Amino acid sequence: MASQPLTVLPVQAPVQTGAFDLYRTLIDALEASGETLQDGDVLAVSSKYSAISEGRVVTMSDIVVSPEAESLAERYHMNPVIAQLVLQEADHIFGGIQIGFLLTYKDGVLSPNAGLDRSNIPSGHAVLFPEDPYATAEGIRTAMRERLGVQIGVVLTDSWLMPGRLGTTGVALATAGFRPIQDERGKADLFGNPMAVTQRGIADSISIAAQLVMGERDEATPFAIVRNTGVQISDAPVTVDDVAIPWPMCIYVESLTVGLLPGGAPAEAFSARQHANNRVTG
């Protein structure tokens, strides 16, 4: 029997700026859109929308800036409050660039400024990651099973900058209800050769598909139903350890730190070169 085509259905919902009932809002949004969840669907939920529902919105004027944050802000030309929030939120800070961003490791994802987001929220506020993304995803899955009687998977979606590429793409900040990684190691390729290292990021791929209809600007589409993904729905718990490689083992991190070749990276910041060129031609 031929497989069914992958289908991604956007679901709009009201804009929110403070804590709210995510489950009730989701059910109301489904009803308003005329869409229904079916067994086997994967529900993509904006991690930012989830975080707002949990009250993970901070008023920047309330933040007390430490001397360490002041130092970071001066070095990387950042807003000191943002530097303070990154210090509080990040699991690890690698460094930064002099246009106000720090590269961090947070909840299993390499991300700028620990996922801190100031878009689509009133001025003077910022949204943090959900407190426990995997618990949030599991809570949504459980609530939909109890309230709607459906067995679904859930991904919390976020945007991610691909190293060396312009533009953002989707990434699964957390997963529930199915295995986020499909291990292809040991299986044969088209020519019978055993696969040595390939592990497919199923949850990330679903998040990318969902991002195409959810958008990132003024679409007000924090949910998407992704149908016919082929994932096997399961009650087995999923944690960050099921998907995240420890950052000391990451090819990008190691290659650009202890594995760096002489001359393998710029000796000065791009922004510094641009500043020097402007002085010469100005």
Give a written overview of the molecule:
- The protein is α+β, with helices and mostly antiparallel strands and 282 residues long.
- The chain folds into two domains: 7-238, 2-Layer Sandwich (60s Ribosomal Protein L30, Chain: A), CATH 3.30.1330; 245-282, no CATH class.
- Helix content is 30%, strand content 22%.
- The protein contains eight helices and twelve strands.
- It has helices spanning 22-33, 47-53, 67-76, 80-89, 133-148, 202-214, 251-255, 270-281, and strands at 7-11, 42-46, 57-59, 92-97, 101-106, 109-112, 125-127, 153-161, 168-176, 181-183, 199-201, 223-227.
- A five-stranded mixed beta sheet has the order 1-12-2-8-9. The chain has a three-stranded antiparallel beta sheet with strand order 4-5-6, covered by helices on one side. The chain has a two-stranded antiparallel ribbon with strand order 3-7.
- β4 and β5 form a beta hairpin.
- α3 packs across α4.
- The model has no long low-confidence stretch (mean pLDDT 89).
